[in-house]
User: Fold these one by one.
Assistant:
Number 1:
Amino acid sequence: MVPGARLVILGRQGAGKGTQCMRLARHYVVPHISTGDIFRASVKAGSEFGLKADEFMRAGKLVPDEIVVGVVRERLCQRDARLRGFILDGFPRTAAQAEALDKMLDEEDMPLDLTIDLEIDEEAALRRLAARRVCSTCASIYSTSRPPSIDWTCDNCGGEVVQRQDDTEDAIRKRLADYNDLTKPLIAWYEERGALATIDALGTPDEILDRLVAVIDARKRP
Ligand SMILES: [Zn+2]
């Protein structure tokens, strides 16, 4: 069996991060831990940090980093992640969070193997996002170059496949710019520690997965 891995994956919208996280999770047999999902799960399960996070969210407040890290810690300490590792997607988002994550992983004796930035230039990201079409029922993703087989009717559920309203060019440009501002210090933080690999996100999903696995395996084999 392939050894597991402990990874953080970064990448702006349009880089195909979700797809590659799923593929990496299958390849290394580790859970794909998306922060949005674990927040919902921990609130539902009524975990200590889940309940704390819920209070802030209900009040419409930003959840403080120490609580976010608490939610992540609760998840990473579960058996699957302990045994095999994890792919963290959507966290950390800031250099301060990266520092807090690093400290927590150190305490739990599960250091990261690598942080990967899936890199795509802004124009290419814009083109991908502007071509994106989404099923209004099940959220399956298509594009103008890869439409459903019958006339914008979802292959999975028969729902209507549409362009999301917030996928206009202006809105996409704004989201991409916001991502840059927020993420630059985070990427610099990992770079300074020699813990970052940058991977070109242009290519077929198979090509990109091959690149990722090559870099990760090289890192894990000292
Ligand atoms: Zn659908």
Number 2:
Amino acid sequence: MQQLNFVEPGTLEWREAPEPRLQGAGEALVRPLSVATCDLDKLLVRGLAPTDEPFPFGHECVAEVTDVGDAVTSVEPGDVVSVPFQISCGECDRCRRGHTGNCERVERMAMYGLPMGTNYGGFLGDAARVPFADAMLVPVPDGVEPSAVASLSDNIPDAWRTVGPQLAERPGSPVLISASGATIALYATSIALALGAGRVDVVGGSSWLRRQAEELGATLLDEQFPKRLGPYPITVDASGDPAGLACALRSTEPDGICTSIGIYFTETTPVPLLEMYTKGVRFHTGRVHARPAMPEILELVRDKRFHPQRVTAETAAWDDAADAIAGHRAKLVISR
Ligand SMILES: [Zn+2]
Ligand SMILES: [Zn+2]
């Protein structure tokens, strides 16, 4: 089958790849229908994230189930499902704790369509193998367009984890988001407002992102990151910029919660640790564990409280994927 590969920054290419086959009774094969670019994809395509080899591309998709092993009980051929980008068994101690990005039964960082860890293939192809179908696949409810939730595999739960549990703990709180061009900030804005945040303030961000954030209901603050704002009980660093990270941390109120989805590719990044210590800040950084939050997010979409399609900046047809991805500027959704 043909599979789209990242070749080098700015260049993607369809290449022949072996058709995946079921390798166990608990597995499924899926045919991707709608694929989204992740914020990290944009950095890879622009040469702003480290990678030195070609790889099968695409790790966010909604797909149709085409075949299942004998032991699979939760899905059947024809079902439309969201496929989390991380491979997880659902049964080991870490998966049971909800830490599905660090499943003990697979290689470290076993994922689809990324050049780090073990790559289980990209979603821009006719088939993908799902090793733990019952644990991984999440049926998409009737009435929800596949293209609307193509990013449910990764970026949408990545946004949800910055505000969802935090607002459950502190209902009605205002939220501060340090932004850049990453669309996770926009998903976080929408989800926070859907979950009853008192207000979402966005600091920093590209001009495109600031416009979008305002349309989604955010209040825009400074374009540059000041030393400190607020304080806020809930802060989010989606900037990938040390100044945005420091601003989010300094703007967190005593015993507040700050979550960073930013990827800092340098060995060390300065953080205002003394201020964090004296105030008490609960800071979390790390890869998202995508799978556990997916059903809850789909309920928000089904109930029309959260409209992820409003974050989609560009769309393209399947056959145009190579050029569309090479030139994309923000969240791109490719559909058959
Ligand atoms: Zn991603
Ligand atoms: Zn596991």
